[in-house]
Amino acid sequence: MRTNYPEPTESEVEILQILWQKGSATVREVHEVLETKKDVGYTTTLKLMQIMVEKGIVDRDTSKRIHIYKPLIPQSSVENNLINKLRQKIFRGSASRLVIGALSSEPVSEQEIEEIREFLDSYTKDNHSKTSPK
């Protein structure tokens, strides 16, 4: 499995988010979603997606009249890369400052807090078992 991907721009990440949610989509379908968020022309969306094909960020199925695009980069890969960059650039490498900053910037739902607790419990258990003598 490929692990080093081209780094998408902010606009490309917006398109990837739509494709990750839908699985695959036409330019028109992607554009309709983007239009609800910002003022963007159809030709701009088309050009961005063509560039993304050239960069190896998305794949385009041209076997039918309507071209279908799908993401080639896993969502987790982009998220991890962006989080690591943010952690290094803004929080001086501190994971705790990153998490505290994220949690204190806006209200967090009880469901999200529970997901965070479950993750921390699992993370602690996994890392403790790796460092404990047997």
TrEMBL record:
Supply one GO molecular-function term: DNA binding
Judging by the UniProt lineage, the source's domain of life is Bacteria
Query: Where are the annotated coiled coils located?
Result: none
Q: Which Pfam families match?
A: Penicillinase_R
- SUPFAM superfamilies, from UniProt? Winged helix' DNA-binding domain
Family the UniProt entry places it in: Belongs to the BlaI transcriptional regulatory family.
The name on file for this protein is BlaI/MecI/CopY family transcriptional regulator
Q: Which organism is it from?
A: Xiashengella succiniciproducens
